[in-house]
Every structure is written in C-alpha cells, then in structure tokens.
Amino acid sequence: AEQYPSQIYGIALVCWKLEEFVLSYQYINQTFSMRPDDEASLKLKRQILSSLWRKDNKYVPEAITFFRMWLYDNPKDMFARRELYLLYRTQSDQQQASTLLDEVTTDSNTAPESLYHYACMLIDEGREPEAIDALEKVYQHNQEHAVVHKLAQLKQKIGDYHAAIRLY
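RE: above sequence
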C-alpha cells in the first residue's frame, strides 16, 4: 500500500462505486496515511462519509468532524454545509443546525446556488419568510425553473396569490 497509493485510491473508488462503503472507507483512510493532502482522496472521502453516516449511525461523529473541518477550509461549500446541517439535525442539535444556516448570509458575495440551497434548508426548518427573502435574492440573478417554482410555492403558501400567479 505504501508503495502504490494511487492504486489504493483506485480500489477505494471502485469499492465506493460498488456501494461497499465500509471497505471503501478503509482503503481511503489508507490513502490518507500516505497522502494527507490529496484532493481527489478528500473528495472521495467526502462522498463515502456522506453515504456511510446515512446507513450506520456509528459514523455520525466522524462525519461531523470531517465536514466541520472541510467547511473551515471551504466555507462556501454547500455540499459540506448541507451534510453538516443534516448531521446536526439527526443529532437533534437544532441550535448548531440553525447557526450553520445563518452563516450562509453573512457573506455578501454568497453565490445564488448557495442561497437557493440555503432557502431549501430554511423551508425544512419552517422558516418560510426567510426562505422567501433568500429566494428573491436568487431570483434577481437566476430565473431558472427550480427557483421560480420554489418561490411561487412559498408565495402561494403564505397567501400572496398574485405574486405566485405572476411567477407561475
């Protein structure tokens, strides 16, 4: 393994594609022992952990630690933010989940895609007025079907039928 880290990564990737997540996780950790900063290995570990914690709760603490660290290095990564959000919710840690959501809007340069995902998470939390605000910001930059449809649904839900009809 120490002589062939690329091959170990390849085995981890194949195991992941075969949905042998535990085995894939073991191999990707071997890769990290040899190449701790390998970008491809980091991305694969992210995918593996995302699958593992959903299938087995014993991986939740490790996934929280991993995604927290990933977010420190990549604060705008909505995949990591969403995973961490879901992990906190599975642990019934509403405070951490809400704090994580609120951090998205502190940056004025937040990408429209990030704001869209933020709005979807707000909807999950029952925070429709804040979700509408976020979606309206997205709508100013992007009038894709998903954005328009989600915004129209929320406008209809709060009784703003004229706005919903205009969007539809």
